[in-house]
Amino acid sequence: MTQSDTPHLVLVDGSGFIFRAFHALPPMTSPDGVPVNAVYGFTNMLARMLREHVGTHLAVIFDAGRHTFRSEIYPQYKAHRPEPPEDLRPQFSLIRDATRAFNVPSIELQGWEADDLIASYACAVRKIGGTCTIVSSDKDLMQLVGDGVCMLDPMKQTPIGLPEVEKKFGVLPEKVVEVQALMGDSTDNVPGVPGIGPKTASALINEFGTLEAVLAAAPDMKKSKRRDMLIEHAEAARISRKLVELACDVPLPEPIEDLRVRELDKLTLADWLESMGFRSVLSRLGVSHPAGAHAHRVAHATAHASINGAAQTAATPAPSESTPNAALLAAPYSGYETVRTAEALQKWVSAAQEAGLCAVDTETDGLDPLNANMVGLSLATAPGKACYVPLRHEGTLEEPAGEQLSVQAALELIRPLLTDDTTLKIFQNAKFDLLVFDRAGLDYASITAVDDTMLMSYAQSAGLHGQGMDELSTLHLGHTPISYDSVTGTGRNRVPFAQVAVARATEYAAEDADVTLRLWHVLRPTLRTNQALALYEQIERPLSPVLAGMEKAGIAIDRAELGRLSEDFAGRMAVMEKEIHAAAGREFNVASPRQLGEILFDEMGLKGGKRGKAGAWGTDSSVLQDLADQGHDLPEKVLAWRQLAKLKSTYTDALLRQASTEDRVHTSFQMAITTTGRLSSNEPNLQNIPIRTEEGSRIRQAFIAPKGKKLISADYSQIELRLLADVANIPALREAFALGQDIHARTASEVFGIPLEGMDALTRRRAKAINFGIIYGISAFGLSRQLGIPAGEARSYIDAYFARYPGIRDYMERMREQARAQGYVLTPFGRRCYVPTINEKSAARRQYGERQAINAPLQGGAADIIKRAMVRLPQALKDAGFSARMLLQVHDELLFEAEDHEAKAVAALVRNIMESAAELSVPLVVETGIGHNWAEAH
Fold first, then answer.
1. Do 505 and 376 form a contact (C-beta atoms < 8 A)?
2. Of 81-95, 401-415, 444-458, 865-879, where does mean pLDDT reach its minimum?
3. Could you tell me if 21 and 69 are in contact, meaning their C-beta atoms sit under 8 angstroms apart?
4. What are phi and psi of 933, to 5 degrees?
5. How far is CA 737 from CA 658, 722, 892, in A?
6. Which of 691, 668, 690 minimizes the C-alpha distance to 679?
7. How far is CA 512 from CA 438, 483, 546, in A?
8. What angle is formed at CA 378 by the lines to CA 372 and CA 383, rounded to 5 degrees?
9. What angle do CA 832, 835, 841 make, to 5 degrees?
10. What is the three-class DSSP state of 357?
11. How does strand 106-107 pair with strand 131-135?
12. How far is CA 844 from each of CA 65, 622, 816, rounded to the nearest angstrom?
């Protein structure tokens, strides 16, 4: 390489490249079984630059840590970012090793981000008349592009100059910080001004020149939501500018003259490449490896084949299909060890740490992890290599339990493994096991480096099949595990797991861990090929411990209020029963569907009844509602009685039974049940309490804040309609949301041609019914029943709606076609929602599938957004110094418990986090309320 007096400095954004390479390349492992896909991408990029003689000076810049001067300015800066993926963590140090192996300077500086070092070096080299190429695609670095400084996208190998910057930001590089300050950055938790996106921000800066000029002009702008936001969030915008502007005066850790491109030490480089298994890079660079090294590495790789899932002698992609490879199937599901002593368990713990990963499973005496006792636990370190540790088996005279470790002794031995963030722990439904360990004495929050095969599967196949271990094993491994019933018996003959013979328990429990580990080997690679890795890593997996904390916390109830409600409901039901008997002409058991059917269709002779297979008349709610719509009094009264009976049995009575000794109710959140990604809850189900009825409000009044505290409700406003406006690209709806207009009044005005001013309530109600009905694929018949109008009139409303918003009809048809073609639709955040009935022969089932296809991206998108917020909120509350905690999630609402004096500040922080959870073309709006009980807060 020719040395020049005019330096051309190439700066590689090492930290930025690591993440891009990791997510872009398929899984790869070194001969030692260490993940190396990001290392491989980095190595190829560095080799290409050296081979093509780019620059006279070269350095790779890294982040030294998370805490920088920006954290002092704004403690929430980057605070919500999740921990790096488990198979990325070991690659950070390996990439630094790679830099040294290539004899390239590796630079980092505590207290400063890599971007600031890059900016300082770029400015310094430009000052002395040199030029600089920044190898990165990071948008924050684009503010540096200009005379003597350009960028190069390392993945696409394309230059980034003035035209590319202007295309992305709408302004030239020197104005990029002004635009970023206004729009903020949800990735780094830079607040910006809510509701202002890149187009609006660039338009404002192009008009006024600078952020300060925009803020100064805001009071004189035309009254609008945007103007109000600029005024209200002016200080946040100023803070944002400080956060996004790169520092160009960082002390340079190494002088520019020391960064000259150095000669390769071929032996050192060859040895390192060989150790990684990067022999293709060896050959491209034309360097040879030391004699004998290859044979040693091949033998080492073969020895690790059972751990890595395939005999890989070089870094190659892991299996990308959903079918298991031969190495996984080869190991038998048998020969498991029963671990009875501390010495034996320590050997398994050490083996797991040496392997770098293991599957873990617990056995309990109940299904509620908050009250169940751990009976035993199992570990698997490789396919076919697993053990069971009995802890509380009782045994029988015929089959004594034998020697067992105590729970506390076992926990002390396994604690270093579970809290070791360099060893991956794999669970099936991790939330359950985390809470079981927590109850046993090991804080769930201390268990780190966790993967969950249930959530891996769910992230890429929601709605396609169940996510239980047995079903996944049959589907992916072709193996049917030992069933729980075959071990414990069924019905009256079932015995508690603690009474199962230890030998039989070992076969069952150790196999669970073994199957979980094998499923991980199959499902982990498919996350990337099915484009579900980000969804799993950033939403589903980090949400698990968040929900565990919510379940453990529970929510306080007012027993006296619930008792009064139960008595009141019982009294009202008794009165209703007398009215029902009078309408029927005789007494009967109102709770008996058979007796009710006989009265309605045999005795009263009402039309529309259908008999079931057993010969009894059908009397479900849809049948009764049809009869009530025809004007019949009896079915209407029965529907009202049933609603009250359900509320009494499901809530007022059940909550009193389910409350813990400290008068708190602990629901269980189901993470992998729905097709759309929505959470569901049970024991009790708190998501079906009626919202708009007096009874539902009274039940919510029984959920209370303890003395000295308040409940805070935070609810996304019309989030599915906002998503519809965004994904269907409806200009009128997007404008209405951007301006903060009444969306239903605006729709009524657009569709029915009525001025917004003086809009009557009936017309607005009809527009509201259409707006929400469209999301669920409502028919003219359904709308007519909802509004109480003829079906023809309802059809004319829907036709007028689509005529005004043709983009919505296009969106609906596009979703139907996507579902028909590929079997699933995608949320805006990449979640696959499978629609199994979309191609059914039955018209009714097919139409149901079409409605699913239309709604799933919207309902699923809303679920993704609130989950993103939930992942960020606990750490954000902690960082802000609040003791508040998140208690419940009910569809689009989150409920918190906070100290009285913190409630307003907590509500403001929660609103900010939730509104910045995603960036749409319309603003996300969160409504908050504070109260002594849930009803008052909601």
1. yes
2. 81-95
3. no
4. -135, 170
5. 42, 7, 18
6. 668
7. 21, 10, 25
8. 145
9. 160
10. strand
11. unpaired
12. 57, 15, 15
What mean pLDDT do residues 636-644 have?
92
Percent of the chain with pLDDT over 90: 58
Q: How far apart are CA 33 and CA 304, in angstroms?
A: 7
Binning the chain into helix, strand and coil, the percentages to the nearest 5 are 55, 15, 35
pLDDT exceeds cutoff 50 at 323 = no
**pTM of the predicted model as reported, rounded to 2 decimal places:** 0.68
| Exposed/middle/buried for residue 485 (C-beta within 10 Å: 0-12, 13-18, 19+) | exposed
For the CA atoms of 882, 79, 87, 871, what is the dihedral angle to 10 degrees?
A: 50
- From CA 658, how far away is CA 678, in angstroms rounded? 24
Give the start-end residues of each E strand in 520-651: 555-557
Domains of the chain (ranges, CATH numbers): 8-258 (3.40.50.1010), 264-303 (no CATH), 326-554 (3.30.420.10), 555-665 (1.20.1060.10), 719-860 (1.10.150.20)
Listed in sequence order, the residues at least 6 apart from 325 whose beta carbon sits closer than 8 Å to its beta carbon are: 309, 310, 319
Whether the predicted pLDDT of 661 surpasses 60: yes
Determine the Cα–Cα distance for residues 67 and 78; give it in Å rounded to an integer. 9
Give me the residue label for tokens 């890429």: 460
* Euclidean distance between CA atoms 249 and 73, whole angstroms: 18
Write the pLDDT tens digit of every residue in 258-291.
999 888 888 888 888 888 888 777 776 766 544 3
Q: How many CB atoms lie within 10 A of CB 146?
A: 15
Nearest to 936 by CA among 651, 693, 695, 711: 711
**How many angstroms separate the CA atoms of 377 and 915, rounded?**
42
pLDDT number for residue 288: 55
Please determine, for residue 414, whether its predicted confidence score (pLDDT) is greater than 90. yes
pLDDT in tens, 763-806: 888 888 888 887 777 888 888 878 888 888 889 988 888 888 89
Please name the helix (run of DSSP H) or strand (run of DSSP E) that holds residue 160, with its range, or none: strand 158-160
Give whole-number Cα distances, 783 to 252, 541, 768, 810, in Å. Answer: 68, 40, 11, 20
User: Directed axis angle between helix 266-276 and helix 37-51, to 10°?
Assistant: 150
Check if the beta carbon of residue 938 is closer than 8 Å to that of residue 723: no
pLDDT of residue 1: 38
**399: buried, middle or exposed (CB in 10 Å: 19+, 13-18, 0-12)?**
middle
Q: Residue 133: enclosing H or E segment and its boundaries?
A: strand 131-135
Please give the full DSSP string across 503-522, using - where no structure is assigned. Answer: HHHHHHHHHHHHHHHHHHHH
Of 192, 186, 188, 142, give the one whose Cα is nearest residue 165: 142
- Cβ contact 546:395 at 8 Å: no
pLDDT of residue 855: 92
Cα–Cα separations (whole angstroms), residue 108 to 15, 59, 845:
10, 10, 60
User: Is the pLDDT higher at 692 or at 218?
Assistant: 218
Average pLDDT over the chain, rounded to an integer: 87
The confidence score (pLDDT) of residue 330 equals: 67
Longest CA–CA separation in the chain, Å: 107
**Chain CA centroid to CA 410, Å:** 33
**Cβ contact 308:30 at 8 Å:** no
Residue 684, preceding bond cis, omega within 30 degrees?
A: yes
